[in-house]
Amino acid sequence: METFEFPSGSAARHAGQPLLMLALLVLSLCTTPARGQYIISGRITDGTVGVSDVTVQSVGQNTSQFASVTTDSNGNYSLSLGQDTYTVTPTKASVVFKPKSCLLQLDCPTNATVSVGFNLPSQTNVDFSVVYDIGGHVTDGTKGLSGVQITVEGYPQSALTDASGNYTLSGFRSASYTLTPAKDNYTFDPASLVVNVASNLIDANFTAHVIFSVRGLITNGRSPVPGVSVVLQNVSSLIALTNVTVATGVFAFTNLIFAQYIVTPSLSGYSFNPPSYSVSNQASVNFTVATQNLIGRITDGTSGLGLADVAVNAIAGTNISTTFTDVNGNYALKSLAGTYIIMPAQAGQQFNPAQRTLSVGSGPSSVDFQRAPTLFDVLVTSCDFPSLRLALSAGGKVGFDCGGAVGTIAVTETITIATNAVLDAQGFNPTLSGGNAVRLFTVNPSIRFSLNSLTLTAGKDAGASGTNGTSGISGSGGAIFNNAGAIVLSNCVLSANSAAGGNGGNGVLQLNGSGGSGGSGGDALGGAIFNNAGSVSLTLCSVSGNTAKAGAGGIGSDANSGGNGNSGGNGGNGGVGRGGAIYSTNGTVVLYDCTFASNTVSGATGGGGGAGTSLGANGAIGSSGDGLCGATYNDGGSLTVVFSTFNNNTATGANGGDGHAGTGEARGQPGSSGSAAAGGAVYNKAGSLAATNCTFEGNSVSGGQGGNGGAGGNAGLAGGDGGDGGDGGNGNGGGICNTADGSVVLVNCTITDNNAQGGTGGNGGAAGAGVGKSGLDGQPGRDFGAGIANTSGTVMLINSLVGYSVAGGNGKGAITDGGSNLSDDASFALTAAGSLASTNLDLKLGLLRDNGGPTWTVPILSPDSPAVDAGDDAVALPVDQRHQARAGRSDIGAFEFNGYVPAATLSIFGQTNQVVLFWSTGITGFSLQSNPDLSPTNWTAVTNASSVVSNQFVVTNSADGLSRFYRLIK
To answer: Could you tell me the fold of the domain covering 212-289?
Structure first.
């Protein structure tokens, strides 16, 4: 046994201190602590506000130690306790508390279990919250509904309603909660409920509605009506469902949630009784087709007496109802429904009109016929779309007889003309509107369709846009698509019609990580008329405000990173616009006494290329599409224009796209070029144009601007050079552009105040870091021929004047001087007899205005104008553009300074088996009529005549040998 000795004195005391301290430490660890060494504290709140005067009690589970304290004004409390595990419980009269730590748990108790001791000397966040109940009831009608589950958003509790429809949810602190009820085959009002809890809530109530159906039957008397479109619209949300009646006339809507609905049937040409129903619960709603009794009388056209035993047919598809006139010529048809052809029939007899069309409910209840030569094959008697469409389906001469003004007929579907037809609205002048939604007419091959005295407006043909890199579809012929047929328009207005190409679809990322290319935009061809290898004739027509707008190219998609990088997708090309008013390909177009004003065409931008990654290249920018011809585009066919004016028509090219900035030390991508614009009034491509006595004034073309170059990269010492800017697009032929070896002959035309403007070049991209250089600016597009531009082919001028060009010069390219022409600049040479081109030449012309005649003209203001008496009579018509007779030697241009209106004299010459009638070409607005006996009522339009020229008719003598009398009448 070893013996330890401790030194004495001071050294001994110091040496023994570590052992003593160690002994004391061991003693302290083995000693049971006295009560009051450990703390339990926290806060009691009502949501966020402290609750005072709450008694907080703690009971030890092992030592049965008990302590109690009251919260202060801020809800705080603190208990000093010995080591143990305690049950801590807050209490206050009529108040329920729960630990904040377990409020989102389903089994959260009303007290907390807390342990304190040497390792946890204090628990300072033993917090409690006042909690409340949320309760209410769910009713179905007047009764409670059991089994409805009520859930709380973001909270684990839910409850089922009891047999009386009541529910209670517990343990919610002061806050806002969203309650949602649910039960199969039910909807609820409200669908969810937000409640603000600040005390026990007992009125969070819901009304249940069983999911229901709406069914019905549509009949015409006892017969079912299939094919009726029935719309069920939610009054609040405006969401609509559509169902169509089956062969039995039945329709049905199922699984409807509670709401107020309007049920409305519709079928073209039909009206219904009632027009609609309002429903909000399970319902069976039936409709009947509105029917109408139709009466009328059939009389002899000469005597006016009624005709007996004439069959009168009412035809609706395959359904035919027939009745007969009584001894006084009266008839009656009962219970008609829909749109009908009403047609009298008697062996060997003709009736006028031969047929009438009407829609029950929108037409008259009485229609008459006369036994007489047929002037109209069909009269549209109720002036609505179904009646018009039905009338045109029968072909022949179609007119209007609505008992008054026709007004506007909304064309809801394109009418296909499959049988030769004439739509003669003289005296009624109706408007057919496509509502900017549909094309008005399509004319089938070899079919002749004539229109007189109508306004065709807001027709539209829009190509669909592409998706996922596919191309957009072209739009063509907003008002009329003539597919190798023949259309003849007289005294018509074509306004605000449009053709629009669809946009190309944006590219999509490829599986290999490369960017997909965008699709090309669709072209726009003929805002008002598309003529495909057919013939078009317009006389005394106004064509204004029509548009052809091409679709933009789709954007190439960006590439994904990977490997050495991937290339971005190319942008799609922009679509081309051709013919703001008319586009004709391989066809014939004749324009006589017409005005083309403010029609527009525009090309579309190409899509931007997608960004490449790492060593991958950026995708190329798609080319911008040209804008060609604001008014009339002639592609490979024949265009004849006489006595007509083209004013303020415009063609616009599209801007080029901006290049991507370079990355690293790469050069910026160059901007793409702007596209060309050409032929503000007329664009003649590989075809022939002959224009006489015409005015081309204030038309313009504007080439697109070049895109800006991308900035150079900024990495490294050198950096990248900026990309070059794209060139501007050319502006060719503000008035007329001839190309692709086309031929143009202009006689006695006035071409003034036109403009050809090339687009500006894009800016070069900024230099990158270091010694990088800025990109070069793009070159501006050329201003080429404000009046006339000939890029390829032949252009001949005779007796014509060109002047006052805004930009681009009066004429550019090869222009042949056929004699007696004037130009107030020297942009092209005039060397033939009677011609003069000089920058000092004062043409002494006025502004475009109404100077008499069917179309506006640019007048000669002074007798000392060089145009007066300077024309070549050998090629000039005897009248000017206004149809006024030329005085003395003809003037140069479309306007005769001393023109005059000749007397209306009709000359008649008899020949074998025919009569030749003619009058001065200066007379306008007259029609030719004949009469066998000079009876005041027997004057009729001459129908057995063929026109030799505009003022000369050859009439075949009638086989009856009767003499005929002729007159001109306005």
So the answer is: Immunoglobulin-like (2.60.40)
Read off the pLDDT of residues 72-105 as tens digits, 9 standing for 90 and up. Answer: 999 999 999 999 999 999 999 989 999 988 887 8
State residue 80 phi and psi, 5-degree precision. -105, 120
pLDDT digits (tens, 9 = 90+) for 673-724: 999 999 999 999 999 999 999 999 999 999 999 999 999 988 777 778 999 9
**Per-residue pLDDT reduced to its tens digit, 668-677:** 999 999 999 9
Q: Are 324 and 312 in contact (CB under 8 A)?
A: yes
Strands 421-424 and 448-452: parallel
Measured distance CA(461)–CA(150) in Å, rounded: 53
User: How many helices (H) and strands (E) in the chain?
Assistant: 2, 91
pLDDT greater than 90 at residue 913: no
Q: Is it true that 130-210 and 212-289 share their CATH fold?
A: yes
pLDDT-derived band at 747, boundaries 50, 70, 90: very high
| pLDDT greater at residue 936 or residue 376 | 376
Give the Cα separation of 754 and 809 in Å (integer): 9
Contact yes or no for 391/380 (Cβ under 8 A): yes
> DSSP states of 701-719 as a string?
EEPPPPPPPPPPP--TTT-
What is residue 388's three-state secondary structure? Answer: helix
Q: Which long-range contacts does 386-391 make (Cβ < 8 Å, 24+ apart)? A: 386/268, 386/269, 386/339, 386/359, 387/269, 387/339, 387/357, 387/358, 387/359, 387/362, 387/363, 388/357, 388/415, 388/432, 389/413, 389/415, 390/269, 390/339, 390/340, 390/341, 390/357, 391/355, 391/357
Share above pLDDT 90 across residues of the chain, in percent, rounded to a whole number: 72
**The residue type at 442:** T
Count other Cβ atoms within 10 Å, centred on residue 873: 13
Angle at 414 between CA 411 and CA 418, to 5 degrees: 125
Our CA angle for 687, 691, 697, nearest 5°, is: 110
Compute the radius of gyration of the chain from its Cα atoms: 45
Superfamily of domain 130-210: Immunoglobulins (2.60.40.10)
**In the beta sheet, which residues pair with residue 635?**
585, 685
Of the candidates 680, 668, 678, the residue with the CA atom closest to the CA atom of residue 617? 668
With CA atoms as reference, report the closest residue to 525 among 461, 619, 436, 432.
461
* All structural domains of the chain with their residue ranges: 38-126, 130-210, 212-289, 297-400, 906-969
